[in-house]
Design a protein that fits this description.
Helix content: 25-40%
Strand content: 5-15%
Radius of gyration: 23 Å
Order of helices and strands: EHEHEHEHHEHEEEHEHEEEHHHH
Largest sheet: 10 strands, mixed
Shape: globular
Bound molecules: iron/sulfur cluster
Number of strands: 12
Structural class: alpha/beta
Distance between the termini: 53 Å
Length: 417
């Protein structure tokens, strides 16, 4: 059998680490702080030349819609002037009609009114890392001296919300917090963060590389956590519409309506975006910033070439090389084997996805309801398309006519209802 011919990918998404792994916090479960081993200098800051070159390369590619995700480490360490410059470069290099999205992830410590107003005015979707009520957040999200950060981050949340910034909650689910699904959900809902992204935590134990770190969440516990969350999310529906937004549920729903999810972990392959570090080094993915996945440097090579190079292609294909139980699994169409990172962090998983059991528990619980929601959604799409076509064609429908959607029912009992 011949090898598949790689499809040329358009560069439309970069994750940027302007301050590298530098951070003003010292969360126990952070996987990125240790990345400073990859770089010679002690302090990591993107200079204007790298910023300009990267921006120009991304926008020159000419994708109609382009996304810059600013992350760390902690991106606010760069100061506001860096981002003013970044957006000025974006305006300078944007092509006619090109849409540019920016997202920003922060731990909140440096967020003040000036930052909040800036993020709002620049129309930036901001993810704030806040794990839940104080005993949950402070369990692992501390300063380097061990002091909790909850009060400061809640203040940042309120500042962002008062300024009317578009903000969502980023919540790491760990061995401790996994017991408190309801408390976390209600905390964010009542605190004004109705968009929530939950990130289950699994890392290799630095002290014993044969097992997962103690803060990692178990598959069974995370599966139950997702089920509780799903029920809470459902119970807050109004007129069949969600009033809170959980990224995993939204993304999974795409596969129920036969569309590709906007979430790389649920896609058949990886490799659709790249990470640009502060010095212009480019890597395959946030979770694979290492020598093996080094693609080049923006000062020497073009980002689009790196995205389409052999290393990134192989990285992307590796996701489709599924662990043993996946090809025969009924949930494969929705789960796609999950994130390959989760097949490697706990050696006891032996190459299987650490969260496989979580997915199974969740889909067994939520599948029927998701199917019903999908049916309803599809039906509504058909109705809207049919009514639009009738309107555009100018045809006068009689209520007893057969419905033009092809259902075989009378118009009055179908799209004309
Ligand atoms: S390794 Fe995981 S996070 Fe990275 S691109 Fe693949 S699915 Fe996404
Ligand atoms: S639920 Fe488990 S076995 Fe099924 S596709 Fe997902 S990771 Fe694979």
């Amino acid at each position: 059998m011949r090898n598949p011919v790689p499809v040329q990918k358009q560069l439309n998404s970069v994750l940027v680490k302007p301050a590298g792994p530098d951070c003003n916090m010292g969360c126990a479960y952070c996987f990125y702080l240790e990345k400073d081993r990859l770089f010679k200098r002690k302090q990591h800051r993107m200079n204007p030349t790298v910023l300009r070159t990267m921006t120009e390369q991304v926008l020159d590619e000419g994708a109609g819609r382009v996304s810059f995700g600013w992350q760390g480490g902690e991106p606010t360490l760069m100061g506001l002037d860096f981002f003013r410059k970044a957006f000025a470069f974006q305006q300078q290099y944007a092509g006619p009609g090109q849409i540019i999205d920016n997202t920003f992830q922060t731990n909140g410590l440096l967020i003040d009114k000036e930052w909040a107003v800036f993020l709002r005015d620049a129309n930036i979707l901001t993810g704030l890392s806040l794990d839940g009520p104080d005993h949950i957040h402070n369990h692992y999200r501390t300063l380097k001296n061990g002091k909790g950060t909850w009060e400061q981050v809640v203040r940042a949340r309120d500042t962002l919300l008062e300024a009317d910034t578009d903000v969502n909650a980023l919540i790491v689910v760990n061995d401790y917090s996994v017991r408190f699904a309801e408390d976390i959900y209600n905390f964010h809902k009542n605190g004004g963060l109705t968009y929530m992204q939950f990130i289950p935590c699994v890392e290799t134990d630095a002290a014993d590389p044969d097992r997962a770190a103690p803060f990692s969440v178990s598959a069974e516990a995370y599966g139950r956590f997702l089920c509780t969350l799903f029920d809470l999310w459902q119970s807050d529906f109004l007129d069949d519409k969600p009033t809170t937004f959980i990224r995993f549920f939204d993304a999974v729903f795409f596969s129920y309506v036969d569309m590709l999810p906007p979430e790389c972990t649920l896609l058949p392959e990886c490799g659709l975006y790249v990470v640009v570090e502060h010095n212009g080094d480019v890597f395959s993915c946030d979770f694979f910033v290492d020598q093996e996945h080094f693609l080049g440097n923006v000062m020497e090579q073009n980002l689009a070439d790196m995205l389409n190079g052999a290393t990134q292609y192989q990285f992307g294909r590796a996701k489709a090389d599924l662990p043993e139980p996946c090809p025969d699994c009924p949930w494969l169409i929705h789960c796609r084997g999950g994130c390959p990172k989760d097949r490697t962090r706990d050696p006891r998983d032996k190459g299987q996805n650490h969260f496989c059991r979580s997915f199974q528990i969740f889909f067994e619980h939520a599948d029927q309801r998701l199917k019903e929601m999908a049916e309803k959604w599809k039906r509504e799409q058909i109705k809207q398309n049919t009514l639009l076509q009738i309107q555009q064609s100018g045809i006068q429908m009689n209520r007893n006519d057969p419905c033009p959607c092809g259902s075989g029912q009378k118009f009055k009992n179908c799209c004309g209802q």
